[in-house]
Structures are given as C-alpha cells and as structure tokens.
Write a structure and sequence with these properties.
single chain; 145 residues; alpha+beta; Aminopeptidase; 4-stranded antiparallel beta sheet; 4 strands; globular
Amino acid sequence: MRIEEATAATPDVVAAVQRLVPQVSSSATVPTEGEIAEIVASPATVLLLARDEASEVIAMLTLALFRIPTGLRAWIEDVVTEAAAQRQGAGTALTEEALRRAAAAGARTVDLTSRASREAANRLYQRVGFELRDTNVYRCEIEAE
C-alpha cells in the first residue's frame, strides 16, 4: 500500500472520490469533477489517497489547514476505506501521514470528529494519539441564497 497526495483531478481520482463519499456520508452530495479539482488545487486542503498493490484507490482522507488569529489549525475530514479493504492499515497510514503533514506545516494540534457508532474508526484515532475532548459540536444548517 502506498499513500499519496492527489495533485490533479485525474479520472481515477474523480472515480475513487465519487465512489468513497457515499460510504462515509449517506447525506452528502457526491462531488463533481470540478469540485474535486477545486479540493485538489486548494492550498487549504490536502486530499490523501491510499492505493493498493494494483494502484487502485482503496481509501481517502482530507486534511484541512487554515490560519486563524490563534494559530494554524489542522482538521481531518472524510476518512473512508473501501469495505473490502478495511483492517489492512489504510486508515492508520492515512491518518499518520496527515499528522506528519500537519506538524510539518506548523500546526500544534489536529482535530477531527467521529460518530460514536464508528467504533473501529474511534479505536484507530485513539491508537494513533487522539484524545476525546470535553466539548460540544454545534451545527447550523443554512440555505444557499
């Protein structure tokens, strides 16, 4: 398995992201090729991919890096591994690479959220060093104008 950064919205990257997004969120809209190109091109996001021995994308993770007045923030989002490829270390490898990149960029911490029902994912995050925080997560749904 190898971990790489998507540097272009190639047909295989687009197909992989479009295949994986519904596996991580049943309510998310599958991103278009243009939206995936925007993610890949943005200086604020790093789309990491795990490829198997046949170079097929089996997992992905998005690392967001952005500066706010209190410092550089790093956030992990949309971590998903193909069902058939789970328990082979892709999620761990992706998360560890995201942590390495966040540290190299100057972030002091990395945050993420994970539903309690995603037990394996929660174990993975704790195993690589994440600690559960005593905080509230709020969401406000807004309508586009």
